[in-house]
Amino acid sequence: MNDSSTLNWLVDQVMKALGQQTESVPDTPTSGDRSASPRHEEYPIADPVNAAPIHNIPEPKWAEGMEELLASTPARIGVWRTGTRPLTTTMLALRNAHAAAIDAVFSEVSPELLQEMNLFTVETHYENMETFLRRPDKGRLIHDRGVALIREKCVNRPQVQIVVADGLSANAIESNLRDVYPSLMNALEVYGLSCGTPFFVRGGRVGCMDHIGEILQPEVLVLLIGERPGLVSSESMSAYMCYRPHAGTVESDRTVISNIHRGGTPPIEAGAHMGTVLHKMLEQQASGIKLIM
What we know:
It contains 9 helices and 6 strands. By secondary structure, it is α/β, with parallel strands linked by helices. It has 2 domains: about 5-105, no CATH class; about 110-290, Ethanolamine ammonia-lyase light chain (EutC) (Rossmann fold), CATH 3.40.50.11240. A 6-stranded mixed β-sheet has the order 1-3-2-4-5-6, with helices on both faces. The radius of gyration is 23 Å and the shape is globular.
């Protein structure tokens, strides 16, 4: 059980205990009495990933509208209150999500996963996480030792180069790579595309794909990287794809599939779609806003 799973389990146990303690408490006042507030907190909290959207408002004036809002976004809508403060369950879920986001940024991708995926590791000039957060530029250049290792181990001028980076969420890599990576490889095989030697970049920013492009000169490069975690998910991954990336590549020349996680774009589906996008890039010799999908 990883740290995020442990946090979720602990919050679930606390919420169950709170529910058992409040079963005998009288019903809440009606919504017509706006000065009144609930005396108990037995309303369930919505889980944006695992559960159907629900709200905590006892008697919403427009129930259908509330359901439509909840169905359209994982944002915290209709959380209700107890007195002048949010429900305890709401605060626990919020603090859990905040802790998971911090953990995602400061944790590291496990060596076991990288070994399982057969990925060797190189580092950028990021030095440490504090510097990485303050100096994004240091995460865009591979360290000299890493450059030498890439040249030693990787195929030069590959058709497709796959790179994995922790970015701002190691948790995203841990949660999605086992599904995304095989799906992407299968898609490349379906389209008859050859792949170079995949590897992992520790302390990597999106711009590191430009430096790697200068080193290996692939036709197309796909970077699987952890997104900046929010309070809905700390497991979100992005796939940045670029045709012949090089120093000075502008952001509009990158094609991105974002929000890859079990509550967003399913990882297996994302991997298959990447194969289609990379195939079109090679056909059109373009990426970003120049690519016609």
